[in-house]
Amino acid sequence: MISNRPAHGRSVPFVDLKERWRRLIAVPFVAVPFVAVLLSAAMLFAALPATALADDGTDIAASESADDNSGSDDVTKPTISIDRSTPVVTDTTGYSITVTVSNPTDGDLPKGSLTVAYNPMYTFVSRTDMQHWAEGDVSIPVRTVLGTADVPAIKAGGTARATVTASAATDAMKALQSWGPKPLMVTYAPGVDAAGNATADGNATADSRPVSIHSFLTRSAQGIDTAATPPMNITLVMPLIDTDRTANDTAIDQLVSHGGNVTAESVVAAGKAKAKTSGTSTSGAQDDSKTAASPADSGSAADDTTDSGNSNSDAAAQTATSAKLAVAAKHGSLQVIADPTSLSTATQQSTAAQSGSQANGTTQQAHIAAVMQPSNFDITAYAALDRAQAYTQAGISTDSWTAKAALAKTNQTGTTIAWQGEADWTSQALTTAKKQGYGIVIAAHDFDANDTATVHTGKYVVSTQAGDVTVLAEQEELGNLAKGKATSGDADGETTNAGRIARFVAQSAFYQMEQPYAAQNRNLLVCFSPTTPAAVIDRIATAVEQSTWLQSGSLDSLINSETYQSGDTAKQTVPTNDHLSAKRKSRIEDALAALKASRGDIERFADTILTDRKSAKTWVDTLLAAHTNLAMNALSATARTANVDSFVAGAKRLGAGMFDGVTIKPTEPVTVVSETAKMPVTISNSHPYPVRVQVSSLTDSMEIVTSRLSEVTVPANGEAQVTFAIRVATSGKAVAHVTLQDVEGRRFGGEQDTSITSVLRISDKTGFVIIGLSVVLGLLGLWRQFNRKKDPDE
Q1: Which of 210, 475, 594, 638 is at 20 to 30 A from 613, Cα to Cα?
Q2: Ranges of Polar residues compositional bias (predicted)?
Q3: What does 584-653 look like in DSSP terms, one character per residue?
């Protein structure tokens, strides 16, 4: 058992000191008989199998876990993952946990058992104390068994699921008479059933040593006669961002051809709706705390993330954003900071579902606490790269992502808050945000690296060159758990959402127990990730509402709360390094280069190919706005590589589509039977405005050539023809390569090849004169040959 002294300066909850002194004084009086009992028990049970676990809960300790994990790290062992558990235990709820046992080994596991035990008397004294337990680095006795379950044999690569439930009426639950987090262990013992009987047979080939994971059971103060302490405020913030958006190629093509009622916003397609599914149901647990497990034929048990984020059981399709809006409507305390571009789409998509529920009178409107920068544009990366001109050339001006622009997209007034991107909020990033009109920013990660004795309100007021900025920084441990991150890679009970939620509840309870209670009106900020599933947000929000030691706070109350740091102290807290990864920088720079090129294509087409840009101003402005929309999404803080590629390709499609709308129609082969001829070329324009282009023709022969250039104006949605002169010096074949150029002589579009065949024929008087003269000379030569006098010497 570990020492109960504070670690790292953490204070001990006052309510536990008397009890601990009483135990310390009582140790000498009970130590000798206790040792005698242990020796007798050891002699009595020496003949039992080493892996047997008592079904009366008399002696199960964390040391078993240390023994189980003492083997080599490269040995593959069975694993346990928590699918479901009761996050908050009261005097009436009891406790239930469902786990999946996986066999990643190459051998089969025999029938076994699952045992869930905890220590109802233990009180964690520090954060380090809790972390050591979560990682299995400390031995804390867990002798109170909540229940056992039989686990069937598991084939190599297979899984089995088991549920253990203890009702509030059981002795194991009645033993829990103090509120707060308690250490809980789940142990899987292959080869031993729930009664302690050996079950191994000759078919089992895998390692049959027990394995355990460490978690927490958290008791609320409900039903316990204990001194009440002020609840701690906690503000849950959910960013509403459509992370599944992609470029809409159909809308892009329609905009280029000016077909249909296409807007600049429509070139970005919202995430597709997905059918809601429900988690795998488990059979009801019995009061005797023993429930048989069943093998999972599919090879993996369903995790709780497959559950719907809504209380409705209908199977209507939902997008991730509309599902989150439904969760926000369900939990009024959930604070939503919305991307204005995602908000409008999600609101439209959820209208049908809401109207369908209105008949039952259950529909509630989600409250939007604030809006963030449009498309969640990465302000921190913008400041870290410090290449404002490159962004402008890519089509993203500073006016595109101001606080004013964010409100304009929602057609309302309210609070604007800048959401943190992939880099840190450095002084330069905070200055940039302030210049853009954001006086409040959310620091969702890596702001205050200082470790304090107790948790505190994460409000900082930082002075910048542009003015003061209020930084709302989340509590790191709780924030990471809410985002689906375990507290460490060794925390074996936090590999699933259910396991992390159990740790979230336990950790928050410990934070509330930290003294002083009333010296600080603490308000902890917890931010979900933009990709956190609605189901997980729903479960955490529900757990917080069930936690009597927590009080849900609003974003406004957090903004107006007492400042934790300001002035020079706050400046020293601000990160000095942006920590933007080299990979992310490279991805942004590549996107900027590609977006600059596609933006340049639109500008070039408007300036050098359209006959009159002014007359096409509305169309060109819409094209440029659409490009900006694509660029903003490509440089969003939440854009994954696939999304970035889609938006960059969409912008390229937009720019290239301008030139692709002006084409050379295929020309029939030309046969030349004289020295000169004509070659007609037809130019087609699919755009709604006339264009002016130069047509170039070059042949691959010196004897068969065409005229070089011809300029033509092509009407809107029409065709025009130009004619090239052909001159032939001899019979033969050649290919004329016809291309398009803008008025400045820069080539665009594809090349059209036309075959020219020359069959030279006599087609004028000069030719006949030459032929006649040749005939006369030939006849004269023949006459001379027959009438010539021979030389005497010949």
Answers
A1: 594
A2: 72-81
A3: HHHHHHHHHHHHHHHHHHHHHHHHHTBS-TGGGHHHHHHHHHHHHHHHHHHTBTT--HHHHHHHHHHHHH
Q: Which of 133-142, 441-450, 461-470, 602-611 has the lowest mean pLDDT?
A: 441-450
Contact yes or no for 294/161 (Cβ under 8 A):
yes
* Same domain, residue pair 81 and 159: yes
pLDDT of residue 516: 63
For residue 769, give every residue at least 6 positions away whose Cβ sits within 8 Å of its Cβ, in sequence order, or none. Answer: none
Helices (H), 472-532: 476-482, 497-513
Q: Which domain holds residue 269?
A: 245-273+581-658
- What's the chain's average pLDDT? 82
Matching residue, tokens 């047979």:
201
Amino acid of residue 515: Q
Sheet holding 467-473, edge to edge: 418-419, 440-443, 467-473, 459-464, 565-566
Is the domain of 535 the same as that of 637? no
- For residues 265 and 281, membership in a common domain is answered with no
Contacts of residue 374, Cβ cutoff 8 Å, sequence gap at least 6: 339, 340, 341, 400, 401, 405, 406, 409, 632
The pLDDT of residue 370 is above 90: yes
In whole angstroms, what is the distance from residue 570 CA to residue 471 CA? 10
Of 573, 597, 613, the domain-final residue? 573
Please report, for the domain that includes residue 566, its CATH number.
3.20.20
Tally of CB atoms within 10 A around 370: 21
Say whether both 472 and 483 belong to one domain.
Answer: yes
356 shares a domain with 306: no
Q: Using CB atoms within 10 A of its CB, is residue 30 exposed (0-12), middle (13-18) or buried (19+)?
A: exposed
Positive or negative, the CA dihedral 42, 45, 48, 51 is negative
Task: Flag the least confident range among 284-288, 651-655, 689-693, 710-714.
Answer: 284-288
pLDDT tens digits, one per residue of 176-202: 999 999 999 999 999 888 887 887 665
Residue 305 within any structural domain of the chain: yes
Terminal CA-to-CA distance of the chain, rounded, Å? 141
- Looking at the structure, do residues 301 and 430 belong to the same domain, yes or no? no
Average pLDDT over residues 573-586: 93
Q: What confidence tens digit (pLDDT) does each residue in 603-642 have?
A: 999 999 999 999 899 999 999 999 999 999 999 998 888 8
Q: What length does the chain have? A: 794
Whether the predicted pLDDT of 61 surpasses 60: no
Q: Helix, strand, coil % (nearest 5) of the chain? A: 35, 25, 40
737/750 Cα distance (integer angstroms): 10
- 782 falls within a domain: no
In this structure, the strands spanning 704-706 and 718-728 are antiparallel
pLDDT at 173: 96
555 in a structural domain = yes
d(C-alpha 664, C-alpha 540), whole Å: 61
* Judgement on whether residues 85 and 191 belong to the same structural domain of the protein: yes
